[in-house]
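Regression report. Comparing outputs from two consecutive submissions.

Submission 1:
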Amino acid sequence: MTQIVFTDSEQELLDSLPGPPVKAIIKSTRVWIIEWLPLTDKKRTGRDLHEWMQNMRPKWSHYSECSTKKEVLSSIEQATILSQKNNMIPILHIEAHGCHDGLFYEDVNEHIELLSWDELTEPLQKLNLATRCNLIFVVAACIGFAGIQALVRGPRAPAIAIVGPDAEIKVGQLFDGIKEFYRRWMDKDPNLTDIVNSASRETSSVSFDWSHLLFSHMMH
């Protein structure tokens, strides 16, 4: 199990952020699933999650399968437009391979395309603004919590919270934890603290982590 190692400056910035409240109740009306996994991957976990959700709560989730980072960014833009027009408040959920620098895709020719956290910052800021600062960003990727790097830059917060595993994790464990995350989200009065703790218990050896990013001076 590989733990995230932050640089001294990153750790100092992380330590300066406000800690999560005891309970965090955040609005959401839909789960916007983006799957950016190579065709060589046997499991299409994003599609499996969408189908599972359709049985649990029909029409709650939207599914986009992408093969390039341009398509990923286009799907986020589509969610932004719908949020502006229809008052949609999505949980943005990305299924991908991850590393400390961002999310990546490896094609059949072993060419790797990286979508860095920096490249995600502005699209997330726009989506968060469209949701009236209610965006939760779920990164279903190894070391997904490293995405905290994308959430500490202005002029406004790219999300109100980020959720992801804090270490490398097996696909089956990650999927079990993610299903528990959304199962608990359907509670009568869901709160993010309890939801994340419950998801962590399902993964057995790796914890889901989350950070509450609510900077009042960044919201305007």
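Submission 2:
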Amino acid sequence: MPQISDTPSDSVRERRVADSLIPAILLAFTGGGIDAFVFLNHGHVFAAAMTGNAVFLGIAVLAHDRHEVILHTLPFIAFVTGIWVSKFLAGHLRYHAITIGLLCEILVLFAASWLPSSFPEVFFVMIIAFAASYQVSSLRTVDTFAYNSTFITGNLRTAIDGLYDTLNPVTRRQGFHQCRDLSFVILSFALGAFAGAILAPRLLNHTLWILDLPLLAVLVTILYTRPEKRAGPSGPAHS
């Protein structure tokens, strides 16, 4: 079992691991899969892409469709609440907010996977939106670049910015890494959405079992990645 120590250096290690490329790719896969699954199986509502919900909400208001207005408004409330809770965890847990928050998201999605098909769709979406909001608010950096694991608009802009910077000899190296990292995240999101669309009609709510696996992999990576050895005052460390 991993030993978790409550030290500032351990917190920095957790953040460094969580912000690396592989976790970002895994998180994006789950982000794409969750919205595809929820959209197809639970009332054509998004659990994480609030931009899409805002568009549908505007259409519902113009159509005077009260049911659709409620269906697209309540996920906003759950999403905002989830962001608030994640900030609370970050401010009060000192060192392990990332690990604990990610574990909570995994458990919430796993619990939701057992809910029956008769469970009200609007409350189901609220549960998933609450869980997904953790990724948006707490895990938003890949390497040194800002990204989002639940939608790709900003990621696409950042990737193209990086591609443009590769044409400048001064910024070529950083631009290449930026374009590469964000392109992998975008591709993973698309693959996750594809997987969610395939699994949703077949596994129903148990689709969340599959979408939980990348999150579990990120959690295991954070817990089992050992701290980097640092050079001491007399020179490099030797094994």
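Expected: both submissions complete independently.
Actual: both completed, but the second showed a warning that disappeared on reload.
Relevant detail on submission 2: The chain has one domain: 20-224.
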